[in-house]
Design brief:
Distance between the termini of chain A: 75 Å
Structural class of chain C: alpha/beta
Largest sheet of chain C: 9 strands, mixed
Organism (chain B): Peribacillus huizhouensis
Strand order of the largest sheet of chain A: 1-2-4-5-3
Number of helices of chain A: 16
Pfam families (chain B): Spore_permease (PF03845)
Radius of gyration of chain C: 27 Å
InterPro entries (chain B): Spore_GerAB (IPR004761)
Helix content of chain C: 25-40%
Strand content of chain A: 5-15%
Chains: A alpha+beta, B mainly alpha, C alpha/beta
Order of helices and strands of chain C: HEEHEHEEHHEHHHEHEEHEEEHHHHEH
Strand content of chain C: 25-35%
Shape of chain A: globular
Keywords (chain B): Germination, Membrane, Transmembrane, Transmembrane helix, Transport
Subcellular location (chain B): Membrane
Radius of gyration of chain A: 31 Å
Oligomer: heterotrimer
Shape of chain C: globular
Chain lengths: ~525, ~375, ~400
Amino acid sequence: MYFKRNKQNKNQQNVQNHTTEEKISSSLTANLDWIKKKTGESSDLVIRPIKAGVNFDLNATIVFIEGIVEGASINDFLIKSILSYQNWKEVIATEQIFDIISEQVISLGSTKKICEWNDLFLSLMAGESIILVDGVVGALSASTTGGEKRSVSEPTAENVVRGPQQAFTESIRTNTGLVRRIIKNPDLWLESLKIGKMTNTDVAIMFIKGTANEKVVEEVRSRLQRIDIDSILESGYIEQLVEDQTLTTFPTLYHTQRPDAVAGNLLEGRIAIFVDGTPYVLLAPAVFIQFFQSTEDYYTRFDIATSIRLLRVIIFIISILGPAIYIAATTFHQEMIPTQLLVIIAAQRESVPFPTLIEAFIMEVVFEILREAGIRLPKVVGSTVSIVGALVIGQAAVQAGIVSPVMVIVVAITAMANFATPAFSIAISARLIRFLFMFVAAVFGFYGIVLGIIMLIVHLCSLRSFGTPYMTPLAPFIPANIGDSIVRQPLWAINKRPKLISKENETREGHGLKPQPDDERGMKNSTLKKGDQNEV
Amino acid sequence: MEKAKISITQLFVLILLFEQGDSMLLPLAMEVKQDSWISILLSTIGGVLLFLVYYRLYRYFPNVLPTDYFQKIVGKVLGKGLAFLYILYFVYFSARLLRSFGEILGIFVYPFTPLIFINIFMVIVVVYTVRKGIEVLSRTAELLFIVLLFLSVTGLILVSSSGLINIHNLTPVLENGISPILKNVFTETLYIPFGELIVFTMIFPYLNSSKKVKSIGVVSVILSGMNLAFGAALNIGVLGTHLASRYQFPLLTTMQSIQILQFLERLDVYFLIALIIGCFFKIALFFYAAVIGISDLFKIREPSQVSYPLGFVVLFLSIQMASSYSEQLQEELKILPLAIQLPFQVIIPILLLIIAFFKNKKNH
Amino acid sequence: MKCKTFFLSLMISSILFITGCWSQKELNDLAIVSAFAIDKNESEKNKGRYEVTLQVINPGNVAGSLQGGGGQTPPISTYTSTANTILIASRELSKKVSRKRYYAHTNLVVISEKLAREEGITRVLDAIERSPEFRTTAQIVIAHNAKAADIVKILTPIDKISSNDVIKTIKFTEDIWGEVVKVNLQDVIRALVTPGKEPVITGFRILGSKDKGSKLENIQDTKPSGNIDANGIAIFKEGKLIGWFHNKTSRGVSWILNKIKTTAVAVDWEEEKEAIVYNVIRQKTKVKADMEKGSPVISIHTEVEGDIGEVNTSIKLSDRDTLFKIEKSFEKEIKEEIKQAVKQAKKNQSDIFGFGEKVYRANPTEWKNLEQDWNEVHFPKAKIRVSVEAFVRRTGLTKESYISDLENK
């Protein structure tokens, strides 16, 4: 799974071009020979001769690759239909045969006429069946795509308490279908591409016409078309080839496994990029605040949603600055710590041989090892590791005097905070930045931490995601959109779409949606009618 | 000139942060003891007038940097010379601020670290920021403004709830009459926080709309003046005139006096954070003005190339400037205002405005 | 381009390994000083020099009690050294202590009475104020009839760190009794510098044996053999200690300085001595300065609110008029205390209340004439008007005392 250099790719392409220029010939045997040669007579290639026409004088062949086709539809709808067709007229083998076959004979969903070898192989490898007729130039491809697929299940990485429990699967059609089921609107447009020289992966762009920014759509399209690579194995490849800036730990594209998240973002004017073979869908453009939001925020009520969002900001800050503040406070600014606490920490540190930075570093690395182990382990051994981890790190290290208990607490809280960040991509960034801050704190104390934060903010403010500044709506400050960023105003109050993302269609709600109780209830003087009382 | 645009909100925030930066460093207007807040309020009025002068100059030549329109007003040779002098002025002040900042950190947080290392770190961050351009600087200002606001409000709540403020320390008001205050205004307080608004003449051309600049600008100048006056009054209220005038950094001592609930003590970290943020902005703005001025005057295409060498210059200048902190303060409060700040901040802009006014009349 | 990034990262990573940076202090390299005591050395060799004693915390033994164990060695240790100035004495102590002295948590400064009387406190405070590490919110205490060093050597049973004992004692005494004043360094310097005001500092003395008091056995006994208690207020003039106020006089000072929070005042009632006790809940004292015919007139007005705390005689408390009469006797009693305090201060010719400062604030021009001889001439002559308003609100859970029933029996 390595990237191949683009130069090599070009050479290969030149060789291929030589043959793909040619159209499919009319000789059946020549065609079949070429197919067999190109696929190296792969054992899952099935060549099924068939006879059609009046008096069965037409030689036809159905070619398909076993395993990626739906056997039942080939049997029932393709072969059976051709074989049982009664109304063959006196037809000489011409181009019209394909029209007749596709329009009158076979009962499959979609068919396509093919003239070039390139298209033929693309269809064949995609799981479609090719029908060749002796004496006719060209071929017909029928969609019989099938094969084993994972069924729609719960999301593995983005769990919510309240909300739909569906997640995307690896099949692009299923995924687009899941989104279509949520947004039943003809303005939801879908554009398909095939990217990757060797893999020919299906990639699709989805957006809502009239809401998404046309310029951004154009930008996405052009960047995707610009990709010249061997293989696209996952949406991560697309993300890395299309993003604005690579020299940053912060992601500029959002990815998710949940259809409702995609639908929500599409409605805000974003563009979704589906990649076949992975359940992770990309969303562009992405802003920093997005990574602190989860779909659950919209399904719960505004007070709890606001509190949780604010909590997430605090969590993020802790996960970046936790150990750094501890190091800075205990090595440079001991006066900050209340005397009692300082005495306790000093007592604990008496027995530790390392300076604070090294101690923190060791603990952090051990924790990262534990985390990686947790991901790689098969489920069976999982519980053993957690026990070992707790014992090793918690008890033994402290009692052996290698680390102090306070350090363990700090590292544990930081790790918890890291896990609690809703978007995985931001959590990874936080992990890396945390180490940087630890070093800075050890060298310069609080001054270093503050300057580091300033540099971090400057860096964040300089990022753009497909033209949108990364820190919208905080900076530049757009008051109308603050209602949905760090806090979450009640649903009836968020009436505008994010301004810099959706320039065209700004209003998303009507006015006056605030739920009001019935006017007659409550402390009202019911003998007076409206207009009688002393209104101002 | 950069192809960047900043919004009115960003200008507002920049002015506020800029003014805030210095206030923690200098004991302003200590000559008039408990009337220092009156002195600051009066100089706010002067500050507003100066701001209006700079604004009017901008209105005569929107979308063009001062280094450019100086030449248009007084001719090529004199204009270029004047622009160059102003660039030197910005570089000098950037270095001066860096020095003050390094000194204060060296006094109460890092007494053993050599000054050059404290300054180097700040210079690295400033150069990194300025290289990214004014847009990034303004956006950062918006974010950090929220942080600073939060700090100030909570700081104020802490100080007032620990019962330290004694209003009587502010009496007797106007003990020696109004004349010492006026003298103080015109020799000190007008220039140090407010005259430095001249930097913003280099920033005005980037505004995306000139509609509300006047009102928002004036409002922000007044607000920052009130903020400074309030800070001065707070210091005297908590410490009393005799202590406040002897301490190098009265606000720091005020923060250090907070003792609540037996665990919220020794809160100088608060002060440290606010100090770093404020000073960073001021230094960055001066530095940016110098960089963009040089690139405009000498027709350099990539201003970011200028920032590295200029960073070195500022760093070494800051070390060379004074041999002790007392010398630095003496220069800053006694010599500089009348010798340099008065001409650069007040006299020359007013003269330029007058000339531009007549030239404009002539053209119509 | 690649070379540039490589070298840059090399430079940065080499900075990271110099983590022993200049201003960095590892926690276990620090000796956390909790109290700072200044004496004058009496021995022949070092007569007249300053003797500085530090009270250093042993973290392991303080925290030990929370994790079990510990208690074999004392939670604090003391170290002494002598030199001509405070700063040099403090640095010379490094010869005796195996750590760097860290003053940021020093909450207590003890100055011996002898030093305060003979030389005054003005010379010793500058190093403390100038140092960025030392807090100006540290509290100051005078060692009464004892050496300051002995005060910091005493081990106390409840607080592991005995400087905490002193600080908390002062705080709670000021809160519930009132004969002491809580002053920190900033207050003292402010009072020294402000014309028309003089400092007052609380005194502490040693009860019992000071030698036994510094041993661990001291706190292993239910009644410690050596103990410290707050005793009196020291008054200063021009930086030198000139006298002590005790008991009611010192409480009078607290009244005037508006430092009383709660206290108890006992009054006589109909031949019974100290029969009724008034629980003061809150009070507010206002001092105003006016000029009448060129001489200053100070008005002190106190408003007190409280309950009846103890009654040792038969008296009808449920009768409103009786309560009014009781209020009158409280007022008289408090007025006496205040007057007594003022009289004593006048006798000592030291304006510890800050009346002069009040005159300055109200009439700055007049003050210029009075400033010079305020303490000696004008302050003793100044007319003081005292008015007290006391209110009795409640009488506790019972109405009349059971003593009334006893008498009827």
